[in-house]
Amino acid sequence: MKLVNSTLAALRAVCVNKLRSGLTMLGIVLGVSSVTVMMAVGGGASQRIQTEMRNLGANTIVLNSGALKSSGVSKGQGSRPSVTLADAQAIENEIPAVVAASPQHNFAGMQLVYGNANWSTLVTGTTPEYLTIRNWAVSRGRAFDREDVVQGSKVVLLGRTVAEKLFGNQSPVGQEIRVNRIPMTVIGELAAKGQSLAGLDTDDTAVIPISTAFNRVLGRNPANPRAISGVIIKVRDGANMASAFTEIRQVVRERHGLLPAQEDDFHLINLTEVMRAKEDSARALGILLAAIASVSLLVGGIGIMNIMLVSVTERIREIGLRLAVGARRSDILGQFLIEAMTLSLIGGSVGVALGVGGAVAVEHYADLGVVLNGPLSLVAMAFAAGVGIFFGFYPAWKASLLQPVEALRSD
After folding, report:
1. CA distance linking residue 165 with residue 272, whole number of Å
2. Structure pTM?
């Protein structure tokens, strides 16, 4: 009952001085709205990274061909046809921690044609293990198998974007398209994976057997007919990724006959470490934003403390009268603490509403994914309540120490 009465008294005090109360809560409103937006954007970034990690496949390492240099000028990664099919086979056979090593032979900008529709996309020649390593399901039809690779079957799997561009809402399975003028049968459609962290459309791709890519569609590199674009490697769950990375590098260096003083003629990437680094960066950015938002909360809390001190001074006779008729010091302390918390919680509620609106605006205009959920609002409100208790305690404690006689004598 005392809590209800104190809360009603606090609400009356807030309503009597609306402008002062509004200005007092402004800092809390800005702080909580900042925290809400920060947490929503941070949650969205974390969700995107987790999605990207699932898309890439856990425990994944990628081996790419190196960069060719001419007169000290690098021609970019992949310009040096150094990685071969035999490298992929050696990695899978010689390193116990490796579950599978799937070769990739890529060609960007390949034209796919179906009837009057056409679309330019990335075509990847690979083995059946590629989809397993990348944790990529087939939503329609089937994946190609080892027999398709052995026979060099003219079959193709389409990413969701390519299927939509060529077939609209119709199923592409069983239809015949031309890939670089070669007729091929669509045997399946890959499940949608969405955008990568770099903003690239992962579904804008087509996958064919690597033997088909070499012999019918993409052709071989004249400088090294066995060369491929790279190898995607799956490391066994529970294995040490750093050790596996070192072993793969050592195996490839030995196969390429590189001396200890020579640089690698290939590029090795631990995708799990890359994703973890991005996650750490997102976490660090979140901490930075939280620190900035906490400054607003600090300013808002100081504002509440100042106003509560003024309120205690203005109501000193009221406090003296309550003490004189039997109120305990804990009652006075509780009354002013509840007033401070009421101010904070009202400001926090307004801040949460503004923060949700801001997060939606960020998602709409900045094209950034955000995560809004119930715990987010609870955390923001807990922040506001904590600020009210922390900064309202001193004025409340000061009010509870007043002597009834001195308080009643004051002007």
Report:
1. 32
2. 0.63
